[in-house]
Amino acid sequence: MKNYPEQESLNQARASFQKIWGYADFRPPQGEIVHSLLLGKDALIIMPTGGGKSICFQLPALLQTGLTLVISPLVALMENQVQELRDRSLPAGLIHSQLPAQQRKNTLQQIQQNQLRLLYLSPETLLSKPVWEVISQPQIQINGLILDEAHCLVQWGETFRPAYQRLGTVRSTLLKSKPAGSKIAVAAFTATADPQTQQTIHKVLQLQKPEKFLLNPYRENLHLRVQIVWTPRGRRQQLLKFINARKAQAGLIYVRTRKDSESLAEWLEEEDYITAAYHAGLSAEARREIEKAWLNGDIQFVVCTSAFGMGINKSNVRWVVHFQAPLLLSEYIQEVGRAGRDGKPAEALTLISEPTGWLYPEDKQRQEFFEDKLRSQYQIAQQLAKKLPLQGEVEAISRKFPEGAIALSVLHSSGQLQWRDPFNYSINKSERSRPSEQLNRTAAQQMSHYLTTRQCRWQFLLQAFGFETAKSMRCGHCDNCKKS
Fold first, then answer.
1. pTM here?
2. 402-409 LR contacts (CB < 8 Å, sep 24+)
3. pLDDT per residue of the chain (484 residues) written in tens, 0 to 9
4. Do 128 and 91 touch, CB atoms closer than 8 A?
5. What is the distance between the alpha carbons of residues 189 and 212, in angstroms, rounded to a whole number?
């Protein structure tokens, strides 16, 4: 049988999957993804929240000798995944900026002694000197580079987390220090990516003929609703009415900022609800406590920013409320997808102020604030670009100019800059700039259109993310379908 060795490796993967995680078999397309990564192929995987993405890269990593690097956006997400692996006595480690120095040192020693199969880190930590010096040693075998929650590369990768833009040259630079014939597969995993986002991920990561696994995010058990509120008091009253009717059910309330999460949680506690505010500004211990209390059912719901939820598995979440609408559809799909993972009915409610903003201008002001901030960052970057040397090193530029790393990132995304390796760049001034700022504004407008559309909401989402739907599609369980 010609493909016997490949079939053998897949059978071995299935047996390990059963032994480690206790599941009888893979869910499609988990087996195909595992197989692809074991063969060392690049891949782009879009799989809905709760679809078992992490197992698809964890299992191949555990079955190979050598190390797989998992680039993850949030400390909380890394800690959750590594803790789950360690609870199963699996060789996984993590390095992040909040880790005590001794623990960082121990993990780097484990890498040098070939004791780890999975190493979780942020883009910034991967490109830090102490980590890079270890992983680029010739004897350290690197099998794969996994970008988890890859939509963050597009969502944050220009003006908030510029290190994301430098990931494309990691593979080629590492391979220069490895023995001849070494291979490093690169795979990007996310729950949401429209065609434009897919293209950006492909280009920035320099994926080579990637296998694509694109799963439709449609969930027929998830009921979508958008509701207009006329005043700040009305918004809070609608929230109370909604959660009062679901007293025994687990849920999540999403807000835009840390300040919003704290003030709303405080108000709900005054209304005799047991809850907590969760955002990226909390310590790892505080975040872990809140996650644990929610997972155990000690608190019914959490008031959180987008920092909450990635990698946290709770199947019986019955509702998600967006107290304020997200800026992007990709955030929205991620966050509503945390409800109803058990396949039972779940609801997603988004509260918005009336479109003119006469009576309740706050939503409009918040949107304008974010757009102005984005515009200002692009303007600063373009002005700074005129002062930058045509070739240079990112750290030196960052020391000289506080916004230097962001300026380099914006130039890269607009096609005017090439990364020679993750640390050195060259600017091509003859290259015409592509206005990536406009792409961000278009994405924000798309969210606005979703909130005001009269068509089936699921049809709108599927089309926005590049999936074909029947022109007459009516899901039957969004507010627009129910109205008609």
1. 0.85
2. 403/377, 405/162, 405/163, 406/158, 406/159, 406/162, 406/377, 406/380, 406/381, 407/380, 407/381, 407/382, 408/162, 408/165, 409/157, 409/158, 409/159, 409/162, 409/164, 409/165, 409/381
3. 233 345 557 788 888 988 899 888 888 899 999 999 999 999 999 988 777 889 999 999 999 999 999 999 888 788 888 988 999 999 999 999 888 999 999 999 999 999 999 999 999 999 999 999 999 999 999 999 999 989 888 877 667 788 999 999 999 999 999 999 999 999 999 988 888 889 999 999 999 999 999 998 899 999 999 999 998 899 999 999 999 999 889 999 999 989 999 999 999 999 999 999 999 888 878 988 999 899 999 999 999 998 787 767 788 999 999 999 988 888 899 899 999 999 999 999 999 988 776 777 788 787 787 778 778 877 887 788 888 899 999 999 999 988 888 889 888 888 889 999 999 999 887 655 555 555 556 777 888 899 999 999 999 999 999 888 767 788 999 999 998 6
4. no
5. 10
- How far apart, in whole angstroms, are the C-alpha atoms of residue 300 and residue 321? 13
Q: Which helix (H) or strand (E) holds 223?
A: strand 222-229
φ/ψ of 118, rounded to 5, equals: -130, 130
The set of residues, in sequence order, having a beta carbon less than 8 Å from that of 242 and lying 6+ positions away, is 319, 321, 349
